[in-house]
Design a protein that fits this description.
The protein has about 300 residues and is mainly beta. It contains three helices and 19 strands. A hairpin with a 2-residue loop joins strand 1 and strand 2. The longest helix is centred in the C-terminal third of the chain and has 13 residues.
Length: about 300
């Protein structure tokens, strides 16, 4: 079985079907460590990645005015228990372009492995990018994942991101995103994570609302059980007239888990407004009793409540 076959078989763990890699209408890149195993482009999309001993380095460009009908799939991973992967990528959405990127990060056997992602994204004026990132780190808890990104959203542009890690162990996760939004731009950042055992999460998302009427939402849902820990920081700063932002963080703790949530909001213009809410707690007792009264076991009831929160 090849490394490509191993990664293909893991795609359903992040909600994707292996057949997407065979569809000639769909652009994709599959990389194992620092080797590119498969790639395809479509009109309007350029993927230029270079293999080096220490990293995969390159750019993903969607040309001006291009409307990419099918999602662009980027599959990065390791099929072995140990190893390292470092990705340095620039994502460029040219003026008026529209695309969806589905990023699949797959480490099904990881016991002592590391994945680092350094991304710079530029969303040109009037462009739109939806970036969905699904992770699977296997059951062993030996994965260390460090995705850092800087995103610049141009005038009237839109950026939507959705990070999810809902199956298997997390291991160690350190997310650090910085987003800057120009006039009439929109940024929505969503993260959903389920942590177990001794998993450790650090999540920092910062949005700078630089332009008039720029808008943003940071929404985080984290569930922790066992001895898992999470430190969540959501920052929104508004610098211009009509800027609007909101930070929304909810963490559910069970067992001996520990959680912290720090929303930070700053306003530097009298016509801007930023709001926040943060909540940390356990599974609602009344909801639990209601589900158990309908025949669910305590474990099933907790699982259903947690699934609802993460959705």
């Amino acid at each position: 079985m090849s490394d490509l076959d191993d990664l293909r078989r893991t795609l359903p763990m992040v909600g994707a079907e292996p057949a997407i890699l065979d569809d000639t209408r769909i652009a994709h890149v599959v990389a194992h460590g620092h080797r590119i195993l498969s790639r395809r482009t479509v009109p309007g999309v350029r993927v230029e990645l270079e293999e080096t001993p220490d990293a995969l380095v390159g750019t993903l460009t969607v040309e001006a005015g291009a409307q990419i009908a099918q999602p662009i799939h980027m599959c990065f991973g390791l099929a072995h228990p140990t190893g390292a992967q470092h990705i340095k990528i620039d994502v460029k959405m040219c003026e008026g372009a529209q695309a969806r990127v589905l990023s699949h990060c797959l480490f099904p056997l990881a016991q002592a492995a590391e994945h680092r992602m350094q991304a710079v994204m530029e969303i040109g004026p009037g462009a739109s990018l939806t970036y969905t990132e699904g992770h699977y780190h296997g059951p062993h808890g030996g994965m260390r994942v460090i995705p850092h990104a800087t995103i610049k959203i141009g005038q009237g542009a839109r950026y939507f991101s959705d990070f999810s890690l809902l199956s298997g162990s997390v291991g160690t996760l350190d997310i650090d995103y910085l987003v800057e939004v120009d006039a009439d731009g929109l940024a929505e950042l969503s993260a959903k994570i389920f942590a177990h055992k001794t998993d450790y999460i650090t999540l920092k998302e910062a949005v700078m609302l630089r332009g008039d009427r720029s808008r943003s939402l940071i929404k985080t849902r984290v569930v922790l059980e066992g001895q898992a820990q999470a430190d969540i920081v959501g920052i929104t700063e508004a610098y211009a007239a009509g800027a609007r932002g909101h930070v929304d963080c909810m963490e559910i703790v069970q067992g001996l888990a520990h959680a912290s949530a720090i929303p930070i909001v700053r306003v530097f213009h009298p016509e801007a407004k930023v709001t926040h809410e943060a909540a940390i707690g356990s599974v609602d007792k009344k909801e639990l009793e209601t589900l158990m009264a309908r025949g669910l076991s305590p474990e099933q009831a907790v699982e259903m409540i947690v699934s609802g929160i993460l959705r």
